[in-house]
Amino acid sequence: MDQDYRAFVFALHPAYGMVLLHCSRKKRKPPHFQCPGGHVDQADFVRASGLLGLGQNLVSPISPELLNLAGKIGAARELNEETGIDAREDLDRLEPVRLRPSDNGNNEMDNELKGRLFFRLTLVDSDFFVSGGNYTAMN
């Protein structure tokens, strides 16, 4: 693959709001908040290719369908690693976030910008468990 892709999740609960992570480990940035997400790994592309029935031989350019599914797989994996919220077996819950008008004539995906893919996940109470009256992500 020629491009390094990353995928991010806007995880929103209708009553409690958006999940943001406090990041204080980046050397070139001061402490800040960010959405869960990270690199879309080669293994994510291989799994997506298998799920689409394309085999394991990845060719360039990557089709939008393959990129979108690999992005969902990577985003769900990162979300689980960083928060304990597990959508890895229910990828349809991850909806692409439309960043620009559709059919813009240049074959770009609506949810991709500069190698970054964005998805929305509507959280439900069953994504968490209650401990002493406080919600905590399930693992």
Task: Characterise this structure.
The structure is a single chain. By secondary structure, this protein is an alpha+beta fold. The protein has helices spanning 42-51, 64-83; strands spanning 6-13, 17-18, 21-23, 32-34, 37-39, 94-96, 112-113, 116-122, 128-131, 134-137. Strands 1, 2, 5, 6, 7 and 8 form a 6-stranded mixed beta sheet that branches. Strands 3-4 form a two-stranded antiparallel ribbon. Strands 9-10 form a two-stranded antiparallel ribbon. A hairpin with a 2-residue loop joins strand 7 and strand 8 (116-122). Helix 1 (42-51) crosses helix 2 (64-83).
In terms of topology, how is this protein built?
Layout: E1 6-13, E2 17-18, E3 21-23, E4 32-34, E5 37-39, H1 42-51, H2 64-83, E6 94-96, E7 112-113, E8 116-122, E9 128-131, E10 134-137
Parallel strand pairs: 1-8
Antiparallel strand pairs: 1-2, 1-5, 3-4, 6-8, 7-8, 9-10
Helix pairs in contact: 1-2
